[in-house]
Specification:
With about 300 residues, the protein is mostly helical. About 50% of the residues lie in helices and about 5% in strands. The protein has seven helices and five strands; from the N terminus they run H-H-H-H-H-E-E-E-H-H-E-E. It has a three-stranded antiparallel β-sheet. Strands 4-5 form a two-stranded antiparallel sheet. Strand 1 and strand 2 form a beta hairpin. Helix 5 packs across helix 7.
């Protein structure tokens, strides 16, 4: 039979109705290949009995109608409606005839009405879920990032600053005796070459549904000397079902982290430049703070 609505996949209402009533004509969109259930066999016998009673009623109406017609000179007599009595008899008998499934036509029609009600409910619910998927829940309240998220963002920024600082090729600040331990010296050809771009998707290693973004001054080693950032592997998570909630959440996380790494990377570069300028000023200034002295003293940069 024609269905007016689209049913939800694996609708449990249809499943239980099928398990209880079995074949009810072609009302159910999907019917298992199991044999007719006991209930349908019982209804086939019940409907045959009701049909027999209906035939007796038809015989009675026919005999009495003929007698009324002959006695009163009017079709079916003056008390019976000559239009609706024949129509009700024909439709009544037709609706009581058992179908091959065991159910009568009127029972199949009633089950069709019930199934359409299930389809209407599925349609309304799918519309609601589609709205929530696009617009979000109207009752959701904004939430602040928890301590774990704040700690992760702090460590991410520290790692990006470390990476930005380590790969700078500025000469050591005047008077600095650290021998390039903090900044890359110009003659250092291994530690500072080929800096890792702040590109999350193209500079990560992925394995076992987890990707790792390793921060450091060189692409060749990728040893994560300045720290690592782990996140979900979108290719692996979305391989089975691209429309699943897990896939959508992973994609949103990856896109957000890509933007965050880019913004924080630019800030880290500026932070490293300003820090170097401060150290250069400190090294060349005529007035420096002598550690442990507590008061400023004039010194000359060597």
């Amino acid at each position: 039979m024609i269905n007016l609505f689209e049913f939800a996949p694996n609708d449990q209402s249809l499943y239980y109705l099928t398990r209880i009533f079995g074949y009810v004509g072609t009302v159910f969109p999907v019917v298992s290949d199991s044999p007719p259930l006991l209930l349908s066999v019982m209804f086939k016998t019940f409907n045959s009995i009701i049909l027999t009673v209906g035939v007796v009623i038809v015989i009675y109406v026919t005999v009495v109608g003929v007698m009324k017609t002959a006695g009163e000179g009017e079709f079916l007599g003056k008390q019976w409606n000559s239009l609706w009595v024949p129509i009700r008899i024909v439709l009544g008998i037709a609706s009581l005839v058992p179908a091959p499934s065991g159910y009568s036509a009127i029972q199949i029609v009633m089950m069709w009405v019930i199934v359409q009600g299930i389809g209407a409910a599925d349609t309304i619910w799918n519309t609601t879920l589609s709205y929530l998927y696009v617009a979000g829940s109207p009752f959701a309240s904004p939430s602040m990032a928890d301590a774990g998220t704040q700690d992760a963002m702090t460590k991410l920024f520290q790692g990006l600053v470390c990476s930005a600082t380590a790969r700078k090729t500025y000469p050591n600040p005047s008077g600095n005796t650290s021998n390039g331990a903090y900044f890359c010296a110009l003659n250092d050809t291994g530690f500072c070459q080929n800096p890792i771009p702040y590109d999350l998707k193209n500079n990560s290693r992925c394995a076992n549904s987890v990707c790792t973004f390793e921060m450091g001054p060189t692409v060749a080693t990728r040893n994560g000397a300045c720290g690592t950032l782990t996140y979900c592997d979108q290719a692996a998570v979305c391989q089975t079902d691209p429309t699943s909630l897990k896939c959508v959440a992973c994609k949103a996380q990856t896109d957000a982290l890509q933007s965050i790494v880019g913004v924080m990377g630019a800030v880290a570069e500026r932070f490293a430049d300003v820090d170097y300028q401060y150290r250069q000023f400190y090294a060349t200034s005529a007035r420096q703070i002598i550690p442990g002295a507590g008061t400023p003293a004039d010194t000359r940069a060597s």
